[in-house]
Structure formats: C-alpha cells, structure tokens
C-alpha cells in the first residue's frame, strides 16, 4: 500500500515536461516533501491511501514560479518609482538603501515575500540591504529564498548625485558580511534559505571587487547575481573607466559563466550577445519593469544565439503570471509577429524550469515530476476571465494573474490556502510595511527638502 501525505485529484496539471505537458483530470501524489506519483486520475496506484485528499476540478496545478531577480524591500516604491524614470539608487529625492533601517527592511521584505508567495512564487532570488535580517524573515512565510546584501565599493550616498567614488574598504565589508551570512543561513530552514553573491552592477563595483567576487564564487560554488547593461549611464561609465562594455568587463573579471544570473541586459552590443550565449550565464529578464521604463531587452536575439533566459519581477510587483505575458508581448513586438519560437510554453519554462536551472536546482524545483520537491501552485480557473477554458496554459499566460492563486505548497507543506498565507498574519505584515514605508518616505522628503534649501543658500 502506498501511504501519502497528500493526494490532489481532478485538476489539470502543467508538468513542464515537453510532449506530456498537460494532464487533464489528473492526480498528483506527495509523500513528505516530494512528488511520488503524477498522471491521470485512472493511473493512481492501486491500494493508495492518503492522509489528506484534495478533489479540485476546475483548477490548474503548476510548478511554483522561480523568480530569479527581485528586491522585496523595494515594495516601498510601489506606485511612485515606476514614473520617475530609473532605478531608485540613481534617482534624487527617493529613499536609498542607507535610508532604511533593519526593522523597516524586515517589514518591507516580508510584504514583498507575502505578495510573491500569494501570487505563486515558491522561490525568490532577492538582494538589497540588511540581508542578515531579511533572509530569515522572508523564509518564515514558507518560501525558498536565495539572498545576499548587495556588494559594491562605490559610495552609494553619492550615486544619485551622479558621483561615483569607489572605496575598497566598502567592498571588503560587503564580502565579510556575506561570509557571515553564508555561515548563518546557507542551507538553513530545511534547505529553504540560501546565499549567493550579489555585486550590484559593473558601474557600482570596481574591477578589483568584481575579481574578488569571481574568486569567491569559484571557491564556494555560489551563484552570482547582478545587474548588467541596465542603463546607458552604466555602459558609458564602463566604457570610460574600463574601455569596454559591461559584458566584456564581467568576462575579463572572470564572472561570465554558468554561475551568473544577470538582470536586464537591455543595452547590449552586437558583440555582447554571443558572449552571453556562449558563457552559459542566465539573463534575468524583467519585461514589465523594463517596458514601463521605456526599454526592452533583446530577448529574441539572445534566444536565437542560444542564451539562457529566466523571468523576474525586479521590484514594485511580484506577479510572475503577469511577467510571462509581458515577456511574450515584448518578444513579439521586437520580431513583429507571432511565431512558434515565442509561445506560452516558452515563457512558462522561463518562469519555472529555467530559473531552477540557473540556481543549479534542475530536477528539484521548477517542474512537476516524480522525485521533484513538492513546490506547486493551484490556480482557480473557475472565473469569468478564465472561461472558456480550452487551452489551460495559454489561458493562464494570456489572461491569468497572481490573484487567481488558490493554494501554494512548498516542500510539501501548504503555505497558502484559499488565497491567504497560512503561516503568518498577513494583516499585521501589511500594517507594519505601511508604517515603515510612511516613515521612510517622510524622512526622505524632509532630507531632500533640506538639501534643496542648502543648495539655494549656496
């Protein structure tokens, strides 16, 4: 007799396995933290018994999303920064990392994690400030989190003024804090908390610091997370400083390899694209965030060259279902057509298995398969905007959203039920994040007005 912890029956399953991607009226069996059986209802092994059974027709079950680039704390910019033109670190009059204290970072990180989990992300790759506190706080919601305090040796208190001054002591302190983070949290929470190396961007890290990061990655085997060619400012600075493109600089520093996850990759040269493809690195594609800022990464050219692409929300939103739709639209805008190369199954793979592959977790997360970890999402498709349901995956990509998530399981444990987080007090998280954001913005506004007054006096 097969004794299960959970048996899901009657839903449509998106396995993520080409050729057998959609299973109607299926079953999915979980024992402990792993999937032990998947198939049609009639394929349930004889003699199967389950401690809990979910009979859920009208639902779609997918692998949990793997969001490979986000800043959960930057939910504090919601509704504001998107209309200011560029990333907060480069913008005057908005809160910067050094303006946020540890308690505020935790409150806002938990809000970002709550949104991500409620919208179907089971794995997040996150970086900003106070990671030693935000990493375990986010994991308390039940997520898998890869995190790190951002590496830099630029003085970030001056970047928004257009001043780049590098100090090796800042970079060394970042490395030391990450080594402490590694000792405290890597492989923690039953394997759900993990550490990576996060050099912020080529323009905010000296070439010396980038080489140190490459050495540390080779020494520890850790992934490296960064921004790459996210702005013309970055490209111009690197050309002036190092005489090359940011992509070429990362190659020179020893970082352009299969451990690298680089976000945006918007302003690439023709020479950069084959370098990226040949390196095995992963492009963290942020289609919505880039498009709302008036830019698009050249994903059709990257994909044609053989580059690995995974999807990410960056900041302000955590809806990976919406991001899939934007990824499809952005590619089709660039190619000027609907083609077999850019279909719903392609962007779904980018939102799930491609992210798992980038993290070295292929076969463990990112797909519904026997022996994979039981990280899965249940979408309620019994809604007007999802009816008629004729092509389940196409309907999810083109018409679904994070609010359609009904249940989420991570490591076999249910962490969202009926659309609500089960392990935390969501109302308290929202209230604490609201108070933190208001306090931060109030301080920032006062400081900005004071600086303008001082400038007028001069």
From TrEMBL:
The keyword Cell inner membrane is annotated on this UniProt entry: no
Domain Amidohydrolase-related: 60-415
Keyword Hydrolase: yes
Family statement drawn from the similarity comment of this UniProt entry: Belongs to the metallo-dependent hydrolases superfamily. ATZ/TRZ family.
Source organism of the structure: Lutibaculum baratangense AMV1
UniProt keywords, alphabetically: Hydrolase
Cited InterPro entries: Amidohydro-rel, Metal-dep_hydrolase_composite, Metal_Hydrolase, MTA/SAH_deaminase
Gene3D superfamilies per record: Metal-dependent hydrolases, Urease, subunit C, domain 1
Record-listed E.C. numbers: 3.8.1.-
Protein name, as recorded: Putative hydrolase
MF terms in GO: hydrolase activity, acting on carbon-nitrogen (but not peptide) bonds
């Amino acid at each position: 007799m097969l004794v299960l912890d959970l048996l899901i029956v009657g839903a449509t399953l998106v396995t993520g396995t080409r050729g057998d991607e959609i299973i109607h009226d299926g079953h999915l069996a979980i024992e402990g933290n792993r999937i032990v059986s998947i198939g049609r209802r009639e394929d349930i092994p004889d003699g199967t018994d389950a401690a809990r059974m979910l009979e859920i027709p009208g639902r779609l079950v997918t692998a949990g999303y793997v969001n490979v680039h986000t800043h959960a704390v930057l939910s504090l910019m919601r509704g504001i920064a998107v209309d200011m033109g560029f990333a907060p670190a480069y913008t005057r009059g908005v809160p910067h990392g050094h303006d946020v204290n540890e308690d505020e970072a935790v409150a806002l990180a938990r809000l970002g994690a709550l949104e991500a989990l409620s919208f179907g992300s089971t794995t997040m790759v996150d970086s900003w400030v106070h990671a030693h506190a935000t990493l375990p706080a986010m994991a308390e919601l039940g997520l898998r989190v890869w995190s790190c305090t951002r590496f830099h040796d630029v003085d970030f208190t001056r970047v928004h003024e257009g001043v780049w001054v590098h100090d090796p002591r800042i970079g060394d302190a970042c490395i030391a804090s990450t080594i402490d983070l590694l000792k405290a949290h890597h492989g923690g929470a039953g394997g759900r908390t993990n550490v990576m190396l996060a050099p912020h961007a080529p323009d905010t890290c000296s070439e010396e610091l980038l080489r140190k990061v490459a050495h540390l990655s080779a020494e520890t085997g850790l992934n490296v997370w960064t921004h790459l060619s996210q702005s013309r400012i970055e490209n111009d600075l690197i050309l002036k400083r190092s005489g090359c493109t940011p992509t070429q600089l990362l190659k020179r520093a020893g970082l352009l390899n299969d451990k690298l996850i680089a976000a945006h990759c918007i302003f690439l040269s023709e020479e950069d694209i084959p370098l990226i493809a040949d390196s095995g690195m992963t492009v963290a594609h942020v289609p919505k965030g880039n498009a709302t800022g008036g830019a698009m990464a050249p994903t059709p050219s990257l994909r044609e060259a053989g580059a690995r692409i995974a999807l990410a929300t960056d900041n302000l939103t955590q809806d990976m279902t919406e991001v899939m739709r934007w990824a499809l639209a952005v590619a089709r805008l660039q190619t000027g057509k609907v083609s077999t190369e850019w279909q719903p199954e392609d962007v779904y793979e980018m939102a799930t298995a491609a992210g798992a592959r980038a993290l070295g977790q292929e076969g463990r997360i990112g797909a519904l398969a026997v022996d994979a970890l039981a990280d899965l999402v249940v979408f309620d498709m019994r809604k007007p905007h999802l009816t008629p349901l004729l092509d389940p995956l196409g309907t999810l990509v083109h018409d679904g959203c994070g609010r359609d998530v009904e249940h989420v399981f991570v490591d076999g444990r249910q962490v969202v039920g009926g659309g609500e987080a089960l392990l935390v007090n969501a109302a308290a998280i929202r209230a604490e994040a609201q108070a933190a954001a208001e306090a931060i913005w109030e301080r920032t506004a006062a400081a900005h007005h004071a600086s303008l007054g001082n400038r007028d006096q001069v």
